[in-house]
């Protein structure tokens, strides 16, 4: 699918959720934007999978989903 932004890897630090994209770029957004993830354990955070042709992220145990396009949109508008 042309233009589909696909994730490759997810990791966290104390302040940010980082998503490495298939094309090598990285999106970093404040973990505080996602209260469910902010409250999760490290084990729960590491238990993710890509969904929707790798354009979304699911934490099944937390019943939480993120769209990579949504992350980009939100981070672009937060900077404006």
Structurally, the number of domains stands at 1
Strand content: 35-45%
CATH class: Alpha Beta
| Quaternary organization | single chain
Share of helix, binned: 25-40%
CATH homologous superfamily title: Uncharacterised protein PF10387, DUF2442
The low-confidence parts are: none
Separation, N- and C-terminal Cα atoms: 29 Å
Which fold name is given in CATH as the topology? NE0471 N-terminal domain-like
- What would the principal axes of the Cα set say about the shape? globular
Biggest pleated-sheet summary: 3 strands, antiparallel
Report on the structure:
- This protein is α+β, with helices and mostly antiparallel strands.
- The protein has a single domain, classed as Uncharacterised protein PF10387, DUF2442 (NE0471 N-terminal domain-like, 2-Layer Sandwich).
- Helices cover 28% and strands 35% of the residues.
- It has 3 helices and 6 strands.
- It has helices at 35-39, 42-46, 68-79, and strands spanning 7-12, 16-21, 26-30, 49-51, 56-59, 64-67.
- The strands form 2 sheets. Strands 1-2-3 form a 3-stranded antiparallel β-sheet, with helices on one face.
- Strand 1 (7-12) and strand 2 form a beta hairpin.
- The longest helix has 12 residues, at 68-79.
- The radius of gyration is 12 Å and the shape is globular.
- It starts with 6 loop residues before the first strand and ends with a helix.
- The model has no long low-confidence stretch (mean pLDDT 92).
């Amino acid at each position: 699918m042309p233009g589909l932004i696909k994730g490759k890897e997810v990791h966290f630090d104390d302040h940010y959720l980082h998503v490495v994209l298939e094309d090598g770029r990285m999106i970093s957004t404040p973990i505080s934007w996602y209260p469910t993830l902010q409250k999760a354990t490290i084990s729960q955070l590491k238990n993710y999978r890509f969904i929707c042709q790798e354009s979304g992220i699911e934490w099944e145990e937390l019943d939480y989903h993120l769209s990579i396009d949504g992350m980009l949109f939100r981070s672009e508008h937060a900077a404006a």
